[in-house]
Prior knowledge:
Layout: E1 2-4, E2 7-9, H1 12-25, E3 28-38, E4 41-50, E5 57-66, E6 69-76
Parallel strand pairs: 1-6
Antiparallel strand pairs: 1-2, 3-4, 4-5, 5-6
Amino acid sequence: MVVDEGNTYSGREAIRQWVANASTKYTYTAEPFALAEDAGRIVVTSHLVGNFPGSPVDLRYLFVLNGDKIAELEIVA
């Protein structure tokens, strides 16, 4: 499951489509600069610069792992 920009994408096919749409819609670079753990989630904070509204922005990527796989990802400003 991925939560991004207020939308939830569940299942492999929905996530593949989300990735495909995001990669064609905007061009950007991301520079991770912080890593933490919060309430069982891995939090990676990155500085993004690109041709999207609000650029530049620092985003937090909140990962929930299930073994060695990503079970959930939430992207928040």
